[in-house]
Every structure is written in C-alpha cells, then in structure tokens.
Give the backbone structure.
Amino acid sequence: MISGEQDARAFVVARCTPEAVQRLDALAELLTHENARQNLIAKATEASLWTRHLADSAQLVDHVSRETSGPWLDLGSGAGFPGLVIAIMRPEWPVHLVESRKRRIEWLQTVSRELRLENCRVEGKRLELVGDFEASVISARAFAPMTRLLDLSARFSTSDTIWLLPKGRSAAQEVQTLPRRLRSMFHVEQSQIDPDAGIVVGRGKVELEQ
Ligand SMILES: C[S@@+](CC[C@H](N)C(=O)[O-])C[C@H]1O[C@@H](n2cnc3c(N)ncnc32)[C@H](O)[C@@H]1O
C-alpha cells in the first residue's frame, strides 16, 4: 500500500514515460494554482494530491491491456480525475472527458491545450447530450450512484466495454443495489492506493430494461 506522497508519486512514475511524468508534474502545479480560484478538489486533499487524486486515477490503467485502442469515456471528469491522468499516461488512446459545469469545462480545455493532449476531447455538456459512440472503457469517479450511472451511460457500452468505477468504501454495497442480471457483470477489486476503497470493475454491454 501507499504510505505517503513520495510513494504515491513513485507508484505513478513506474507506470509512465518520462514525458508523461513531466505532464503530470505540470498538471499538479496547474491544479494547485487553479484550486485557489475555483473549488476543483477539496482543500483538505491538496497536501495529498498524488495519493488521493493522481495515483488513485493512475491505478486504473492496470485494468486495461495496452492493446486497447478504442475510446475511453470518463463521466463527470471535474478536475480531471481520472480522465486527464489517463489521457496523459496513454497518449495513444482517445479519451473523452464529459463535464457539464462551465468553469470545470474551461479548466479541462485549458489543461488539455497547455499540456498539448491531442488525444483528449472535452465534451463540455451534460452526458445526456453527448452523441452515441462505442466506448472501449467507461470510467467514473464520484459521478453518480451505480444505477443512475448505468442508466446514463449504457448506450456507450458494447460487449467488450470495460467498466472502471472507483467507489470508495461503498463499492460492494453499490454492486448489491443492481438488479441481479447486471450484478453478475461486475465485481469489486481492492484499490492499490487506499486499503478501504474498492473499484467496481465490469465488462460488457449494459442492457436497460424497457
Ligand atoms: C463529485 S464531482 C467528481 C469529479 C471527478 N470525477 C473526481 O472524482 O474528482 C462530479 C462531477 O460530475 C459532473 N456531472 C454531474 N452530472 C453530470 C452530467 N449529467 N453530465 C456531465 N457532468 C456531470 C459535475 O459537474 C462534477 O464536476
């Protein structure tokens, strides 16, 4: 487990090219600066930025094979977690960041431009208004309870879609709230960063009941 900020940064660095590390360091600096202007991350987590946000996001790449090539869809990206971190770590993957709040959209666009993230597409609108496409990976951290999340995003899933949903302490309980036919698609993996947190991991197309 991770035992401090240096450890968390080392965890991320071990999964990155030197260019990605440079960009993540730049993201950390930009975020610390911007957080004084708008509430992107809780002030209490500023001192543990690498642990709580960067490493917590970076661990998701361990669940996806390098050969995956289709788009990664991140729901409710907010300050950019996990979506911006994924876009930096995997420049060969198209990453769509969906965010509806104006200042957060501007933030995501600014970072994407300043860090020259050509693979990153900011969908600055409500998820409900984003046009259909087939996502290889769907991620969402602190976006919505499982049933609502799946209702809103099922149309982007295919039989091969990987779902990566960091759910903190409520992971197992959230899976239990799903109807039985969906429950079997998902399981919980322990976070490598926080021993008390779980990531709901799934594969497949979510079929909604009519
Ligand atoms: C609690 S924040 C989490 C942000 C980020 N994923 C994180 O973990 O730090 C949830 C974000 O989802 C966005 N959001 C909520 N509902 C949305 C919707 N229907 N479409 C797009 N964005 C939405 C909010 O504006 C907010 O920025």
User: Anything to note?
Assistant: Residues 76-79, 81, 98-101, 104, 126-128, 141-143 surround S-adenosylmethionine (CB under 6 Å). The chain is about 35% helix and 15% strand. The radius of gyration is 16 Å. The domain at 5-203 is CATH 3.40.50.150 (Rossmann fold).
